[in-house]
Amino acid sequence: MRQLHVAATDANTRASRRALRPPPGRRAFPLIHSTAVFFFAANGLCFAMASTLPLFHLYGDPPDDQAFDFIHVETIASRSSVHDWTIRAHRHRNLFQILLIERGGGEMTFDVARLPFAAPAAILVPATIAHGFRFEPNVTDGWVLSFTEDAAGALTDRVGEALARLRALAAQPVIPIGDEAERARLSALCTELFEEHSLAREGFRLAMRGLLVLIAVGVARLAASRARTGSVTLRPADASVAHLRALVDENFRAERQLDFYAEKLGMTVDRLNDHVKRATGVTAGHLIRQRVLTEAKRQLVFTAQPIHDIAQELAFADPSHFARFFRKQTGTTPHEFRAQRGG
Predict the structure, then answer these.
(1) Class of domain 239-340
(2) Which range, of 76-85, 104-113, 172-181, 269-278, averages the lowest pLDDT?
């Protein structure tokens, strides 16, 4: 059996990293706005913006590209309380996260959007998505589950379909929980997941995988119910489209031509476009352009990189080519887009 790495922490087991400090004599009130941390003071506003969007394994920890069969569960308060209840915008390369908000609320950044949330609710955060949280201090609590998708997929092949569907449903990440019985059930499952590791009884690794699956499917049902006005059926994900999205994520900076992706998938370009159009309603080319656009928006909002550097990083021939692409997709220029969001 593959080794399952699990971590369960509380406020006393995680050392606080040094927060950004305001100038001497100013009282700090940190407010998350993209990756910028703002300090409001009587005589002005100052801020610091990261030059790149932080990439973590767990928040504050260096990336771990070797993470495999990994499940981590902790309370919201255990990590956020030592960071002044503010988790600055960042992303994870290979972790999916599910948050269960049982008390309080706050605001999250999700890519370039800012979204309020309030208990009871679940929040879905797929791998690679830029996200951050500002929780109500000393009020908000619940659970944070972080896992590599193989940890749940090891139990059964059908889990892969549910997780793929979960990723699609995460386009709207905040999922209100209107049914108290369902909230209580998810809370009990999270508590049991935490206890399975703590007690380490015989078979606890298998039990933890099973509990993770129950939580993931339960949240997916809630999201599907919201999206479909009562329907809770989890439609199997299209394997070819899922494979295309994975290929695009890996190669979009260097490869924009459909021929490359069609060859990798063993299809002609026409067949690939037809297949993707039937499954998603848009062409394969549209998916590629949207992935490039999403990355451009992230860099514009979450970093202080010059626009010409962003254009070069995204493999545009020159900044003017990047600006034309961006305007065609959004109706605004990169400069205007950044300015509108406080950059």
Answers:
(1) mainly alpha
(2) 269-278
Q: Which residue has the tokens 């899922």?
A: 242
Q: Name the CATH superfamily for 5-16+52-228.
A: Regulatory protein AraC (2.60.120.280)
Q: What is the pLDDT of residue 39?
A: 31
Question: Cβ distance 301 to 112 under 8 Å?
Answer: yes
Three-class DSSP category at 57: coil
The two three-digit tokens of residue 126, written as one number: 């797929």
Tally of CB atoms within 10 A around 291: 17
Q: Note the pTM of the prediction, 2 decimals.
A: 0.65
Q: Are 266 and 252 in contact (CB under 8 A)?
A: no
Q: Per-residue confidence at 330, pLDDT binned at 50, 70, 90?
A: confident
What are the distances in angstroms from CA 36 to CA 49, 50, 109, 118, 307? 4, 7, 11, 23, 17
Average pLDDT over residues 40-66: 64
Return the domain boundaries, the chain.
5-16+52-228, 239-340
Q: Which of 70, 284, 38 is nearest to 197 (CA)?
A: 70
Q: Mean pLDDT: which of 23-27, 90-94, 115-119, 201-205 is highest?
A: 115-119
Contact 134, 52 (CB under 8 A): no
The Cα 292–Cα 298 span in angstroms is: 10
pLDDT of residue 342: 62
> In the numeric block, which tokens belong to residue 55?
């990439």
Torsion of Cα atoms, 228 then 233 then 238 then 239, to 10°: 140
